[in-house]
Amino acid sequence: MELKNVWNAYAKEELQELEKVNDLYKSCLDQGKTERECVSLTVQMAKERGYRDLKEITQSGGPLKSGDKVYAVCMDKMVALFHIGDEPLENGMNILGAHIDSPRIDVKQNPLYENEEFAYFDTHYYGGIKKYQWVAIPLALHGVIAKKDGTVVQVNIGEKEEDPVFVITDLLVHLAADQMEKKAKEVIEGEKLDLLIGSRPIEKDPALDKEEKDAVKKNVMAILKKHYDIEEEDFISAELEIVPAGKARDLGIDRSMILGYGQDDRVCAFTSLFAILDVEDVKRTACCILVDKEEIGSVGATGMHSRFFENTVAELVALSGSESELKIRRALQNSKMLSSDVSAGFDPMFAECFEKRSSSFFSKGLVFNKFTGSRGKSGSNDANAEFLAQIRRVMDEGNVAYQFAELGKVDVGGGGTIAYIMANYGMEVVDSGVSILSMHAPWEASSKADVYEAYKGYKLFLKKM
Q1: Rounded to 10 degrees, what is the CA torsion of 365, 370, 373, 376?
Q2: Nearest to 55 by CA among 315, 301, 233, 289
Q3: How confident is the model at residue 321, as a pLDDT?
Q4: How far apart are CA 106 and CA 129, in angstroms?
């Protein structure tokens, strides 16, 4: 099947809307470099569109009716939005699901140390990364530090022009003969990914005869105490993430692409968010759920394996007039879902890893994956043919460009999404998303046309399925 480059199909008005969507997307990428930041931004945007906190509605006991818009948050790292439709909830929902965690490097709980008058943060990488890609690039520090008195300190260092940045050092090429002989996964070991954060000793006390021990580390803590009022032991209850410093940028002399951190999977998360915020007058309840922990197996209280979504649907059923376990089960089983996650775009520089007939391509539209998983479809949700036929019809009628693909050659590798988890409820689920180059690298690339087609496709799914 021949796929057309969608840039040639746009009228002037569509190109203007395309740029508007992508400008908003880049702004969201800049503001949401962690899952907490994504949830905060989502709630802010939802409130501006009339969404209300489900907790407040539950406490007041107010009923839900068609047209109501509510959101629910789990631990500030997972969020679900619901636009209540005309049909009863037990008839099912149209769900967009994506994850808002991205591969990164985390700061350990006892991180700060000094070595030869350099101060470092000890780290542990999160998700699948090529460790060598994270050295010798500007890095920023995002996250929270929770203190024993209950206050939570927000940390964001390295993004403003006047901010300092951080770095993980690499060995100079002049001394790297042995290093260059190693396999890529061994060039930089996990324990070598420590973050360089300082080298200046604390000002010497004139009353002391000897140099102060760990003076650089003490100076770092003095600065952190001054700006954030924290003690070293507060790192025990901190969540600090190391991410690439800098903004998402237009890529290419033609400005047709976007280069930015965390597009896996925030390109799907933010376009799903835009879709549910813009959709109007839905027959079936529309839902957008943005989750954490997908990159490490969807585990924990804020991952898709948690009961947060199921419990939230139970609250909706109760607020709609009945507390029926059977209606909750019906609402879940009768739902239809796009499990939205990125797809590996065909890269001519690495063509040997792709089977071209089954690859996704830049500027060819929204990508659907009947199955993901690895090799023999292990860990896959394999969508029903009838459901795919419905999707094809709706996308064709709505003039959305789309393509069907697999992740790569069968025996080369693979990957999974949250699709199989939601499919456990018996609902119809298929993987969809945006084609990405350099997936899981500090900087990933996407096509503006595909971002726009994803937004259009997601909005259509909520309205028409």
Answers
A1: -130
A2: 315
A3: 80
A4: 12
* Residues 61, 309: Cα–Cα separation, whole Å: 20
With respect to CATH, is domain 6-102+261-464 assigned 3.40.630.10?
A: yes
| 132 contacts 184 by C-beta, under 8 angstroms | yes
pLDDT of residue 361: 95
Q: Which residue has the tokens 């010798």?
A: 136
pLDDT of residue 324: 86
Give pLDDT, residue 414: 67
Rounded (10°) angle between helices 448-464 and 12-31: 90
Per-domain boundaries in the chain: 6-102+261-464, 104-244
Tell me if 264 sits within 8 A of 144, measured CB to CB.
no
Fold adopted by 104-244: Aminopeptidase i, Domain 2 (2.30.250)
Contact in structure between 90 and 327 (CB atoms under 8 Å) = yes
Task: Burial-class residue 3 by CB neighbours within 10 Å (0-12, 13-18, 19+).
Answer: middle
Which are the contacts of 292, defined by CB distance < 8 A and separation ≥ 6?
Answer: 35, 77, 78, 99, 100, 101, 300, 302, 303
CA atoms of 360 and 379, how far apart (whole Å): 20
State the pLDDT at residue 407. Answer: 76
DSSP assignment, residue 359? -
Q: What is the pLDDT of residue 207?
A: 65
Report d(CA 319, CA 177) in Å as an integer.
Answer: 67
Which stretches of the chain drop beneath a pLDDT of 50? none
CA quadruple 280, 282, 285, 289: dihedral positive or negative?
Answer: negative
Structure tokens that stand for 379 in this block: 């860990």
- Tell me the whole-structure pTM to 2 decimals: 0.94
- Provide the pLDDT for residue 3: 85
- The tokens describing 37, both together, are 């930041």
